[in-house]
Amino acid sequence: MKNIIKKGELHPNNPHKGKYDFEVLVENLSELKQFVKKNPRGEDTIDFSNNEAVILLNKALLKTFYNVQNWEVPKGFLVPPIPGRADYIHYIAELLDKKENVRVLDIGTGANCIYPIIGSQSYNWEFVGSDISRESILNAQKIIDSNENLKDKIELRLQKNKDNIFSGIIKNNEKFDLTMCNPPFHSSLEEAIKANERKVNNLSKDNKAIKKGMNFGGQKAELWCNGGELLFLKKMINESVKFSKNVSWFTTLVSNKDNLKPLIKLLDKQNIEEIRVLEMSQGQKISRVLAWKFQ
Fold this sequence. Notes:
Elements: E1 2-6, H1 22-28, E2 37-38, E3 44-45, H2 51-66, H3 82-93, E4 103-107, H4 114-123, E5 126-131, H5 134-145, H6 148-151, E6 154-158, E7 176-181, H7 189-203, H8 220-223, H9 228-240, E8 247-254, H10 260-268, E9 272-282, E10 285-294
Parallel strand pairs: 1-9, 4-5, 4-7, 5-6, 7-8
Antiparallel strand pairs: 2-3, 8-10, 9-10
């Protein structure tokens, strides 16, 4: 059964709907003030191609909405846009029948630990975050250790075999209500760099001032892998069969809409009870969550 659900805006429960209230954000994080400026319409904004400004915006948002007082990401690692990350959390919450004692596995939690932070503080979920990068795990643990409200909610596990996704992370009789993943969607470093340059050019009004590689946030495991998004997610679906009794709902973001058809075709070959595609949008950007559960 395929249940295709289309949405046109940020989830109603997402606290980041509408424009940023920079007055409140600056009040909670004074360092952000130096980067706030007026756009042509006279509204407060920041230069989103400036990595330092985006990091401070994230810190202000995390402090204001999620009571996270300390959050640092090593130079060169992915700096995630929080509204879109929060949307993923709020949409998959609709898949759950129960509201208490929810356990979630975040595949590729990254150095920023953003999904466990948002999910634990928005819904009181407990998280296991996995990653193949030891440096990412170490930094995410620093974030957890420096915020009392995260310590009892998030556990981190290092994936020692880069060819595995769930194997080596999910224990024999362990149960999860949800798994989630923001997969690497490029197939090479060169492809990722070109995509980043297009993004920076779109964000900046003074393209000549941007040097090649500037603001390129993201390590290999965060942005690209052999075969790109499609091969990674095919591997995830095939491996999910082994853990069908451990997990209620498997979910993942799908960046390229053309990948949905072959992924759903692969799922149809399995003992699937239900497939859902949740379409989310933020401005002109559209992303999709593919969710499936076994009989």
